Amino acid sequence: MSFKRNVLAASVFVALAATSLMAGAQTIRIANQGDALSLDPHSLNESLQLSVDANVYETLVGRNKDLSLAPLLATSWKQTSPTVWRFELRKGVQFHDGTPFTADDVVFSFQRAKGEGSDMQSTISSVKEVRKAGDFAVDIETAGPFPILPDVISLTMIMSKKWCEENGATKPVDRRKGIENTASFKANGTGPFRVRERQPNVRTVFTRNGTYWGKIEGNVQEVIFTPIANPATRVAALVSGEVDVMEPVPVQDIARINASPTARVITGPELRTIFLGMDQKRDELLYSSVKGKNPFKDKRVRQAFYQAIDIAGIQRTVMRGASRPTALLVGPGINGWTEAQDKRLPYDVEAAKKLLTEAGYPNGFEVTMNCPNDRYVNDGQICQSVASSLAKIGVKINLATETKGTYFPKVLRRDTSFYLLGWTPTTYDAHNALSSLTACPDDKGTGQFNLGAYCNPKLDALTNQIQAETDKTKRNELIKQAFALHAEDVGHLPLHQQSLAWGVSKKVELAQLADNFMYFKWMSIKK
């Protein structure tokens, strides 16, 4: 075991040493606990991958530092009918290979993002058709009125139709099936940075795009992104100056970094909610001691799990106070969240035992719980704490923790009985969480991340009403009703919103966004 640790430490040292040799005066070296699993912007709807890819690829509509909408590849947009939006496209834009950007690329990219293998289907499931309206305009038609469409497409990245055709990448990389193509390892966007080198799980090097259509606010010429899974190694690399930016900072190391002469920690609330999901569709769980039936189909079992989890203990001992316990799948900062609804069921072990007994499981049962150990803040420890809590009501958790590289393909193909997931609504609106996490799954992308297939047609009807409603007061009332239904069903087990903690060299300036996206264009090295 010690030999393996030494080999791992040595490999990280070699990667950092190579990074240091490559680094120049205007180079920023970034370390994260994991890597982007692909450069394909449609292959995985995961914040880290989308954040990395968003420096290379662009969307029609983007975000400013305050998360308000900003024109990117579209210069303006307007509704021409209740179900049609016209987007005027930016002229004079080139992909990194010199190919001009046109409406053909937009039509192609939306078809690709909605197609087989795409993990972005849920974000644009309401899009009925994208039509070319001239070389530099497109019409996007939705299945029904959709007042927040510009927000919804803010992560649908545009690829070159010509490049994808020439490189056999017309379909997305399918993480569920382990299918790869050129788009996984090479990139050709319109963004402010280009990919110069890609070594998965070792290093990715980005260089400033000298022909970028817009102004790049920061002065950084090169970014070297290195995954460092071990938290202590990540902290040591920052304090020693081997990396300039790293995240997440282990909550127990924040004070140490702030006390160092070379670095500081930038903290803030994050829009991501961490929660647990359960298979509520299969008649028999894949990974459980219960045979012939599915205990999670019984609301009493779901509620017993909820009330057995010591969320205050997780906040205190695992998260060191850097979390906010929640009763909802969204938190403050997301439209539709209300403090009045955000009240958790009480932690009550005896009540949980009684519910299990009533459901027919007086001695509990065994079930496997799938968790990543390098994706969310202290994710592995959270799952261990949940397992300890559930042991008190007789439930034996067989904990299966693994790197996100194998975890996500497994749970995304619904090969799980009980799992942990985190979700940031990309529209900063509750409809995103409802349509992606709670809607009955279909083959069009609705409920794509409802991995346990919880299903309530009444909730779906409300979600559809929310999508079409233009009156904000009425819309928020519908959101309130939807969350009330989900809470009554105990559809998922919300845990908390985690806090952001980035370790940053004192010579670096950057912008920290509440969605945890890290944009290189806003990074500068102080002169």
Main sheet characteristics: 9 strands, mixed
> Strand tally, please?
19
Number of helices: 16
First-residue to last-residue Cα separation:
45 Å
Which runs of at least 5 residues are low in confidence (pLDDT < 50)? Answer: 1-14, 17-22
Radius of gyration from CA coordinates:
23 Å
Overall morphology: globular
Helix content: 25-40%
Report the mean per-residue pLDDT as an integer.
93
Structural class: alpha+beta
- Strand residue percentage: 15-25%
Would you give an account of this structure?
With 527 residues, the chain is α+β, with helices and mostly antiparallel strands. The protein has helices at 2-22, 47-53, 103-114, 149-152, 161-166, 182-185, 231-240, 254-259, 299-308, 311-318, 349-358, 379-391, 404-412, 430-438, 457-468, 472-489, and strands spanning 27-32, 61-63, 69-71, 74-81, 84-89, 127-132, 137-142, 193-199, 203-208, 222-227, 245-247, 263-278, 323-325, 366-372, 396-402, 418-423, 493-505, 508-509, 524-525. It contains 16 helices and 19 strands. A hairpin with a 4-residue loop joins strand 6 (127-132) and strand 7. It starts with a helix and ends with a strand. Residues 1-14 and 17-22 have low confidence and may be disordered.
What's the SSE blueprint?
Blueprint: H1 2-22, E1 27-32, H2 47-53, E2 61-63, E3 69-71, E4 74-81, E5 84-89, H3 103-114, E6 127-132, E7 137-142, H4 149-152, H5 161-166, H6 182-185, E8 193-199, E9 203-208, E10 222-227, H7 231-240, E11 245-247, H8 254-259, E12 263-278, H9 299-308, H10 311-318, E13 323-325, H11 349-358, E14 366-372, H12 379-391, E15 396-402, H13 404-412, E16 418-423, H14 430-438, H15 457-468, H16 472-489, E17 493-505, E18 508-509, E19 524-525
Parallel strand pairs: 1-10, 1-11, 14-15
Antiparallel strand pairs: 2-3, 4-5, 5-7, 6-7, 8-9, 9-10, 11-17, 12-16, 12-17, 13-17, 18-19
